[in-house]
Write a structure and sequence with these properties.
The chain is α+β, with helices and mostly antiparallel strands. The chain contains eight helices and 15 strands. The strands form three sheets. The protein has a six-stranded antiparallel sheet. Helix 5 packs across helix 6 and helix 6 crosses helix 7. The protein is globular and about 50 Å long. 44% of the residues are buried. The mean pLDDT is 93.
C-alpha cells in the first residue's frame, strides 16, 4: 500500500524535519516496514553533502566481525576520496553503518560516486548541495530520532512509508530514491510500473546505475535523464505520464522545486492543500492535518495531472 508525503514552503525556511516526521508518522498504517526522508536545506557555496551507508541494519547483528568490516570500509572511503582530491570538511557518524560527509570537490561527481560504491557494502544514498536523503527500518519517529531530524531546517521535503510487497525489508529497497549521480533529485512513489524492465534496460544503456529492483528508482533515474537531455522538471514529468505504464502517483523534488504526477487512471490516492506560502501533499488527508490541525480545504488532483511548485 505505502504512503507518500511532501511539503514546500515558498520563500522561507521552516522545520521541515519535524513537519515531515509528523506527516509520515500519521501514515504509518500504510507502511510500517521502513521510512525515508529527502530533506532540502540551505546550500553552502561549493560544498556538497554525501549520505552513505556501509552495511544494512540487520548486518550489524553479526557481531564484532561486521563492525570491524564497517570500520575498514570507512577507512577505504576516506582513502579513495583523498586520492580523488576531495576536501572532506566534516565527518559525522549517523549510525554504526551510516555516515554524513560534507566536502568540496571540483571533479567528475559520477566518477567519484562510482569509485566509492566500488567498495563492497558501500552505497551512496544521496549527494547534494541541499538534499539529504535518510532512510532506514522502522516508523517515522524511530528513524527521525535515530538520525536527529527533528531540528532540520529547510524549504521542502518528500517522504515515504513502505509496506514491503515485492522486495526485501532493507535500506536498499526503502524510498526515497536519489537520481544517481545527479545532485539534489529525489523521488517517492506509490504504485506499480508495468514497463519497468524495458525502461530500466534503456537507462542502463545510457550509463545509469540501479541499486535495487524497485520500480520507484526508475522514476528518479528517468526524470534526471530527461533533465540531462534538456527538459525542465515539468516537461520531464509530463513525458513520464505519457511513457511510463502502470498505476502510480509520485512526488519528485529538486534543489528548489517540488512536483507531483498522477497516471491517467488516477488509481493511487493523493490529497493536496495549497496556500499562498505553503503546499502539502499526501496519500491521505490525515498527514496534512497532522501539521495543520485547524480547518483547511483540501482537494484531489485530476487523473494525468502534473504540478510543480517553486520554493
Amino acid at each position: 500500500m505505502c504512503g507518500i508525503a511532501g511539503l514546500i514552503h515558498r520563500g522561507k525556511s521552516s522545520n521541515v524535519g519535524s513537519e515531515m516526521t509528523s506527516m509520515l508518522q500519521s501514515l504509518k498504517h500504510r507502511g510500517p516496514d521502513s521510512t525515508g526522508f529527502a530533506l532540502y536545506g540551505a546550500p553552502t557555496d561549493n560544498q556538497y553533502i554525501m549520505r552513505f551507508k556501509l552495511a544494512e541494519q540487520e548486518d550489524m547483528n553479526r557481531g564484532f566481525d561486521i563492525q570491524q568490516e564497517v570500520v575498514a570500509r570507512q577507512q577505504e572511503v576516506d582513502k579513495r576520496l583523498e586520492s580523488m582530491g576531495v576536501n572532506v570538511i566534516n565527518r559525522e557518524e549517523a549510525t554504526a553503518y551510516s555516515h554524513r560527509y560534507t566536502f568540496s570537490f571540483g571533479g567528475d561527481m559520477k566518477k567519484l560516486a562510482d569509485y566509492v560504491e566500488d567498495i563492497e557494502g558501500a552505497e551512496i544514498l544521496s549527494i547534494g548541495e541541499g538534499l539529504e536523503l535518510i532512510k532506514d527500518l522502522g516508523d517515522a519517529t524511530v528513524v527521525s530520532d535515530q538520525y536527529s531530524l527533528s531540528d532540520f531546517q529547510g524549504t521542502h521535503g518528500i517522504g515515504h512509508t513502505r509496506m514491503a510487497t515485492e522486495s526485501d525489508i532493507d535500506i536498499r529497497s526503502a524510498h526515497p530514491y536519489w537520481a544517481y549521480p545527479f545532485n539534489d533529485v529525489s523521488v517517492v512513489h506509490n504504485g506499480q510500473l508495468t514497463n519497468y524492465w524495458t525502461f530500466r534496460r534503456e537507462m542502463e544503456r545510457h550509463g545509469h546505475r540501479f541499486m535495487s529492483n524497485c520500480d520507484s528508482e526508475l522514476i528518479a533515474v528517468y526524470i534526471a535523464n530527461r533533465m540531462e537531455l534538456g527538459d525542465d522538471l515539468e516537461e520531464a514529468m509530463t513525458r513520464s505520464v505519457e511513457e511510463l505504464d502502470g498505476v502510480f502517483t509520485y512526488l519528485v523534488a529538486t534543489s528548489d522545486k517540488l512536483g507531483m504526477a498522477k497516471d491517467v487512471m488516477a488509481a493511487k490516492p493523493m490529497v493536496l492543500y495549497e496556500s499562498d506560502d505553503f503546499v502539502g501533499l499526501a496519500s491521505e488527508e490525515v498527514a496534512i492535518r497532522s501539521i495543520f490541525p485547524n480547518e483547511i480545504e483540501t482537494f484531489d488532483p485530476y487523473e494525468g495531472e502534473v504540478r510543480v511548485w517553486q520554493a
